[in-house]
Structures are given as C-alpha cells and as structure tokens.
Amino acid sequence: TCTYFAKAEDGHELWLRNKSATNVNIQTAKKSPVLDIAINELKKGWLGKNDAKLKFEFSTDASIKGDGFRLERSTIKAKTDLGILYGTFEMLRRQYLGKADENFSSNPSYSRRILNHWDNLDGSVERGYAGKSIFWRNDQDLTISQADRELYQLYGRANASVGINGTVLNNVNASAKILTAPYLKKVQAIAGILRPYGLKVYLSVNFSAPVTIGKLKTADPLDAQVRKWWADKAKEIYQLVPDFGGFLVKANSEGQPGPQDFGRTHVDGANMMADAVAPFGGIVMWRAFVYQTSEQDRTKQAYNEFLHYDGQFKKNVILQVKNGPLDFQPREPFSALFGAMNQTPVMPEFQITQEYLGQSKQLAFLSTLWEECLNSDTYQKGKGSTVAACTDGTLSKNPLTAIAGVANIGSDRNWTGHIFAQSNWYAFGRLAWNNQLKSEDIADEWIRQTFLDAGEKAKDQAFVKPVKEMMLESREAIVNYMMPLGLHHIFAEGHHYGPAPWFANTKIRADWTSVYYHKADTIGLGFNRSHTGSNSVEQYHEPLRSKLDNLATCPEEYLLWFHHVPWTYKLKNGKDLWTELCYRYDTGVQQVRTFQKTWDKVHGLVDEERFTAVQSKLRTQSRDAQIWKDACLLYFQTFSKRDIPYDIERPV
Ligand code: GCW
Predict the structure, then answer these.
(1) What is the H or E stretch that residue 166 is in?
(2) Among residues 110, 496, 538, 575, which is most buried (max CB within 10 A)?
(3) What ipTM was estimated for this complex?
(4) pTM here?
(5) How many A from CA of 327 to the centre of ligand 1?
(6) Minimum CA distance residue for ligand 1 atom 11
(7) Rounded to an integer, what is the distance from CA 642 to the centroid of its chain?
(8) Ligand 1 within 6 A of CB of 113
C-alpha cells in the first residue's frame, strides 16, 4: 500500500505539480466542502500577484450554464460550487501555462463526464495495463485504509481538475455482488470521499442480479417481483448514496445476461431499471455494444438492433455507443448510431485504456482519435451534424447529455503504466468538458504541466515542440504499422496486443477471427461493405453514404473497411494497393524510430527517471512495430504474390 503514497511524493502527481509562489486572499460568502477544496487548491497553486484578492461570486448570469464558470481578473463566477471549483482549476492552469490574465468563460459540452472503470471485484482490471484496481481487492477486504483514502483524494482532485464529474466503479462485465450490502457500504464510503471533488458514483449492474443475489426465480424485466427487487435495490442504494448517479448496463452482449433471455427487448430491460432509479434522479446508461452470432456483418448489428427503439426509452435512459461500429480499433469510421436517433439521447464511449493501441507498452496520444470521431459529420440534420453536435444537445436539445471514457488507471505508481498514457486521461477530461478543443492545444497544455515548471518558455523549441509533434503523430503511426488503409481487428486473439492476421478457426464464431475482417485473397484485400457487399454504408446519411460506397471517393483511410480492393488497384498517389500497403507499414515503423530519436534528444531536459522509463518503452514499441510490419506483410504477401518494394527495409 505504500506505493500509493509514493504517487504524490515522487512527483507523480500527473499534470498537477503547481506549487504556489505567492499568497492569495480568498473572499467567499459561502462555505462548503467543494469550496474548501477550491480554496485549498488556490493556496497550494496560486501563481498570480502576491497578496492578490480573489472573490468567489455566485452569479445568475445566463451565459453561465450548468457547472460552467466565468473568470474575471479577480473573480471566479459560477452558478454552483462545482462551477467555482472548475473555474479555480482553469485559473490555476492558465497561470501555470503563463496565459494572459484576461476574462474567460467556459461551459461544459456534456453534463455528465464519466470514467468507466472495468475493475473486477477481485482487484483485477479487464483491459487494464497499469496494475491492480484502485477500488477493489477481494471479497475479504472491503476496508478503506488511510492510504486508500489519500489515493481517492488524489484521484478526485485529478478528475476535478479536468472537469470529469462521474465514475463507474466496476466492470461492465459486472458481478452481481457489487449490489450486496458489504459492497454497497464500500461504495458509500468511496462516494463520500469523492463527493467534494464533484464526482458522482455510478455502478455497472448485472441483469440477472435478482436471481443470483436476490434469490428470485427470474430476472424477467416485466415480472412484478423483479421490478420490485430493482426498485428496492435502488432505494437501498440511494439511502446510502443520496446523489448516486445511476446504472451502467451491458446486457445481451458477449454472454452477459439481459432482457432477451426472457423474450423481452432492450427497451423493456432499460425502462425497468430506469423506473427503479427515476424517483431519485438516477439515470441508466444502456450500452449498445451488442452483436450476435449471425450471418450479418458484425459492424451493422448495434444500429439494426437499436434504431427502431428510438423514442421508446424512458427519459432517464441514454444509449452508450462506442466511437466506432466494431470495437475501439486504431481507426474506425464513426458509429452510424450517433446520427441515427431522433429522440433517444446517445453518448459516446471512448476507450482511454489502450486495449488495441499498444496497451501501456506503446505511446499513443488518443486525443486525435477522439477529435476525429467528434468532428465526423453524420449529416443527420444536414451538413455540420457532427458526432459532437449529435451528442452534446446542440442538435437534439436533449437535456440528458453524457460522455464516457474507459479508464486506464490502476495501482501503478504513475497511475497509467506509461507516463504518456496520463495524457489520455487528461485529454478525455478536457474534451468531455469542451468537445471543440484541439488535440494540439491539449497536448501542449499537458506537456507543460507534466514536464515543465510554471511559465517556463526556455524549453519550447527543444522540448515542447518535438514532444508535441511526436504525440500528435503517435496514433497515426500505430494505424500505419498495425492496420493501415482501413484494415481492422487483425489482432492476436485474447490479448489484443500483437498481430495475427492469419488467425482463423472454424470452431469459434467467424467474427472472432481475423480472416473475417481482412478477407485477403489472390484478388485483393478488405471487407466489402458497399452496396455490393454487406451494405453497412446504408446506415450512413447522404452524401456520406455514396461517398463511402464508391471506391473512387471513399477516403483512403477507410478503404479496406468498406471495400474489397484488388491488389493492383491504383491509389491517389499512383501506387497500387500492395505497394502502398508495404509503404504504409514501413512508414509506421520509421515513425516510431523517429520518436526514439526525438526522445533521446530531450535527454537532460526531463528528469532521469521519466526519461529512462519512456526511452525504454519506445524501444519496445519500435521492436513491436517491426513485428507488426513483418508479420502482416509476409502474411499478406502469400496472397498478393508480389515483392516487397526494395527501397524499404527488409523483414527482419
Ligand atoms: O473491447 C471488448 C473487450 C472486452 C470488453 C468489451 C466491452 C468489458 O475486449 O474486454 O468487455 O469489449 O466493451 O464490453
């Protein structure tokens, strides 16, 4: 447990390393635990004029929305205590970054900005690469030590600093045990520690809980006893945690129980739970990540399952949709569900943990991936109907707006395994607060706060610039050496780290193999989802549908996602598919080699500990990028029967 303490002491305080240089006097007419934290942060981190007078002001200004705020020279204005806290963090960030002391207003894009922890109750973390769960150890030990308490405070502080205001404490592959009294007691205690940081607690629930822990004979959502069981359970939870956020549900997906087990629908299931939490103001986040063993292209299934339920869900239900229609691949087109629903609100689910992007071994700044998704145009209500606008209430005027990120946090001393993975936690929070932010600015902020002293400008050219370029390029590099040109899910089975494009197995469902996705043959490569194939393009609105449908107009980054393309097909740069594929894989490897050089050059500009840690991870990444390239090219070559161009590096 002492590793927990080390997080603060060893300078592993994430992006929050500001230490006050000057004194500030705070004037506030109100007192509360939230405001106490704001005051404490200001005392700890104030870098403005010495002995400055700063005022908290509760304002009815209509331009301030929700927990938004307005900063004026010596005033933080907000409607709520949390607004003051978020304004405080923004003010301190601006001071740290050396930004001009000018008026600044900001309102959150989404009202609920939530981390999803895939933490199991035995302490393991599904798709977690940074140690153990910070919340759960095992059934026998549900205590909260002083070290835990301090850790949760650091966690709360980090989240509040970027505006994250909710956390789901357990895995969506949920154990029903989380709803038993001993666990709920711990949930209550955690909620108590996180509350002043503005974090609402939510739980993932298992649909068959009424049977497994409730001893009922069924979990049928239309059964009166089942409905009562959930209503009573909700009441029990709200007695312990009055501001409990609600339930997250993975139902009838990958073997999880759900309403369909009883011949009922997702609507029946979601609404039953929604009724249970509604009296207390709770919500239900119902995941749309469903796919059955069927002949139907897996990427079409969630849309087909949910579209016709639009408008049938209770008001406190929101559909949680992964950014792409498959599963958090290095690159996917956006999920068509974002532009599909007219009445039912939809929330994006991003994956902060790098399940498919090198885990905590590789450097991948995911902000660019999320920005790409948020800015994608669904054309739902004409041009400009971006995923951001479809989900943040701009287009639907739906009062329930939310966004989720699958956390990459664990018990590791640096929280996230890879130091640069901290930037993804940071970026998720910043984009959840403001979905118009640019990755470039987010990276800049994060680098300065994580590695530089307050206001430091001397390292701009030698450090900030090259490191920022590396971050901004990192996701594209991974796309290049893993799955360029729209390739997807050719990962080794199970762990999802390395390549296995050859993976085929007639004994398991086809969509759990790699050959299902790339469909390599002697003619070409790629999954035909155009109108002559699975026709998944039909789920997109015009003019996007036709653009994707037509091989000549389909953006090349999605080419093999939507088309089976002949090896000899000429791409825009004049190269044929096989040749271009070789160059893309090679480019990816070369990009990582360049990252290594970039990082080696900053030696001395960053502390030795973090320098070495990152250097060593980049070596691993470079080696593994090479493996990806060699494996994929040598395998695809058995179909293309062509040489790898001689001006690129030979397979090792
Ligand atoms: O990405 C896949 C993962 C599973 C995960 C599932 C989901 C929590 O491989 O580990 O389960 O998606 O999102 O439900």
Answers:
(1) strand 166-168
(2) 110
(3) 0.99
(4) 0.97
(5) 8
(6) 173
(7) 39
(8) no
